[in-house]
Design brief:
The chain is 30% helix and 21% strand. It is of the alpha+beta class. The chain has a five-stranded mixed sheet, covered by helices on one side. Strand 4, helix 3 and strand 5 form a beta-alpha-beta unit. The structure holds benzoic acid. Benzoic acid binds next to helix 2. InterPro entries: AhpC/TSA (IPR000866), Peroxiredoxin_AhpC-typ (IPR024706), Peroxiredoxin_C (IPR019479), PRX_1cys (IPR045020), Thioredoxin-like_sf (IPR036249), Thioredoxin_domain (IPR013766).
Length: 220
């Protein structure tokens, strides 16, 4: 089996310089101090991608509230991106205010492992699959989701994971199965129940010594 280098959680997201619908972008400089959602789509002028990019445009203000930039990528060129953005805005009733990277020579896509040669509907590995990367302000990879080309992603789920990651970073809680905003969180296993009681003044419920719940700490 061919040896492959995978980008793993906790690794530094590779920097790159590329053209985009908002001009030349130096990735690390562009996102400096912020979280970023970098997502690839198989190609311009394709139906599923059109709906995904429209939804991302509508969610962009919510991502911004979370100190998060969004950036798309496909292996098409900038002129195609510009033409297609007009279609996205018309058909999805939105304004696309985030950049879409043009990666016609697939340099970024290959570096990030977004080309999957054996995946169906990617023209023998010439197109990208649907990968989402959540990258934190220190440029570390915090999430990698990969969907097949013919399956649209759920960007509400991407937002949910972003919220969960930021809660863990800021409040020392984890999030249980199917967690949604406003629901109880899990005290990190590294914190003793005694410490948890002073750390979480809203209260700690000890279901078992290792499963401790507390109300979501960043809500009033
Ligand atoms: C699309 O983006 O619409 C798409 C791409 C590849 C296969 C099927 C759908």
């Amino acid at each position: 089996m061919a040896q492959q280098n995978y980008l793993r959680l906790g690794d530094t997201a590779p920097d790159f310089e590329a053209d985009s619908t908002q001009g030349r972008i130096s990735f690390h400089k562009w996102k400096e101090g912020k979280w970023a959602i970098l997502f690839s789509h198989p190609g311009d002028y394709t139906p599923v991608c059109t709906t995904e990019l429209g939804m991302t445009a509508k969610l962009q203000p919510e991502f911004a509230k979370r100190n998060t930039l969004v950036i798309g990528l496909s292996v098409d060129n900038v002129d195609d991106h510009h033409g297609w953005v007009k279609d996205i805005e018309t058909t999805q009733n939105c304004t696309v205010n985030y950049p879409i990277v043009a990666d016609p020579d697939r340099t970024v896509a290959e570096t990030y492992g977004m080309i999957h040669p054996n995946s169906p509907h990617t023209m023998a590995g010439k197109l990208t699959v649907r990968t989402v990367w959540i990258i934190d302000p220190n440029n570390k990879v915090r999430l990698n989701l990969t969907y097949p080309a013919a399956t649209g992603r759920n960007f509400n789920e991407v937002m949910r994971v972003l919220d969960a990651l930021q809660l863990t970073d800021n409040y020392k809680v984890a999030t249980p199965v199917n967690w949604e905003q406003g629901q109880d969180c899990v005290v990190l296993p590294t914190i003793s129940t005694e410490d948890a009681k002073s750390l979480f003044p809203k209260g700690v419920t000890e279901v078992t010594p290792y499963l401790r719940l507390t109300p979501q700490p960043n809500l009033p």
